[in-house]
Specification:
Blueprint lengths: L1 H26 L15 E2 L6 E2 L15
Antiparallel strand pairs: 1-2
């Protein structure tokens, strides 16, 4: 009977640790920015990945041709 109680307590402890780790990992994610700008219509640079305006011909960051 004592071994059963120890086993149940160990399982409950492990479940508690895993739940705590899950909660801590979830809180590390950065919150969504309420002031985020829309990227609709923007062109991403194939060289550096910088977002550029839809009418840009060269990347504003690295100067690569946007096609």
């Amino acid at each position: 009977m004592d071994q059963y109680i120890v086993l149940v307590a160990a399982i409950a402890g492990i479940a508690g640790i895993l739940a705590s780790i899950s909660i801590l990992r979830r809180e590390r994610r950065p919150p969504e920015n309420p002031f985020a700008a829309s990227t609709e219509g923007s062109r991403r640079c194939p060289s550096c990945g910088m977002g550029n305006g839809p009418n840009e011909r060269q990347c504003s960051s690295c100067g690569a041709n946007l096609g």
